[in-house]
Amino acid sequence: MAYISNIPQPTDAVKDSQPLILGNFTEIPTLLEINHIGFVGGADDGKHIKVDFTASATHPVVAANQLLIYNYVNPTTTENELYVKKVGGLATAGIPFTASLDAAEGYTYLPSGILIRWGNDSGTGEFSITKNNAPKFSHIYNIQLTAKTSGVGDTNKAIVYQSSVLTGAGFTINVAAVERLSATPATVICHWMVIGV
């Protein structure tokens, strides 16, 4: 029996409404126990077992003093991610805090809106690392570089961060690689990490 919201009516006799009221009391736990501990008489009654999010094709509007967590499904790619959105937040569309690429060149988001991207490239002497802006940075806060040498005995390599440029199309990191004990240009593998929003 489905839940009936308009019983008892003022004119109903109790004996007539009782089966419907009892049916409602049966339906209430059925609804409340979806993803929750049911009425078992313990300290965990009503606590979540898990949380299911329905798919949203739009980014919902967040009201003042509220925080939203929602499952947005990209209509173009049909990929879905959990988003967090707050008033005055960094991203109008919300922050896709489950979006990531777990790879040698990848990225991840923090719920605060911080975006971290990493990868590795190689070069000799002065060289540039240029990447497209997907996912997109609007501001870069920090760039970290680490030189990877070719072997255990090859420790005489150093890299210097020279500058960076952020454009709508992507970002470029300008690097100088030298032998540590001289100004002689060196060839290195450069691990990089960029932090921003």
Question: What's this, in brief?
Answer:
With 197 residues, this protein is mainly beta. It has one helix at residues 14-32, and strands at residues 55-56, 67-73, 80-86, 100-101, 106-109, 115-124, 126-132, 140-148, 157-166, 170-179, 187-196. The protein is elongated.
How is the topology of this model organized?
Elements: H1 14-32, E1 55-56, E2 67-73, E3 80-86, E4 100-101, E5 106-109, E6 115-124, E7 126-132, E8 140-148, E9 157-166, E10 170-179, E11 187-196
Parallel strand pairs: 1-2
Antiparallel strand pairs: 2-3, 4-5, 5-6, 6-11, 7-10, 8-11, 9-10
Helix content: under 10%
Distance between the termini: 51 Å
Number of domains: 3
Largest sheet data: 5 strands, antiparallel
Instruction: Write the H/E string, N to C.
Output: HEEEEEEEEEEE
Question: Number of DSSP strands?
Answer: 11
In percent terms, what proportion of residues is strand? 35-45%
Let me know the average pLDDT.
Answer: 88
**CATH hierarchy: architecture of the largest domain:** Sandwich
Low-confidence blocks of residues: none
Structural class by secondary-structure content: mainly beta
Spatial arrangement of strands, main beta sheet: 4-5-6-11-8
CATH class of the largest domain: Mainly Beta
Q: Could you please say which CATH topology of the largest domain applies here?
A: Immunoglobulin-like
Radius of gyration: 28 Å
Overall morphology = elongated
Count of helices?
A: 1
Task: Describe the protein.
- The chain has three domains: 1-47, no CATH class; 55-98, no CATH class; 106-196, Immunoglobulin-like (Sandwich), CATH 2.60.40.3940.
- The mean pLDDT is 88.
- Strands 4-5-6-11-8 form a five-stranded antiparallel beta sheet, with no helix packed on it.
- Strand 4 and strand 5 form a beta hairpin.
- It has one helix spanning 14-32; strands at 55-56, 67-73, 80-86, 100-101, 106-109, 115-124, 126-132, 140-148, 157-166, 170-179, 187-196.
- With 197 residues, it is mainly β.
- It is elongated and about 100 Å long.
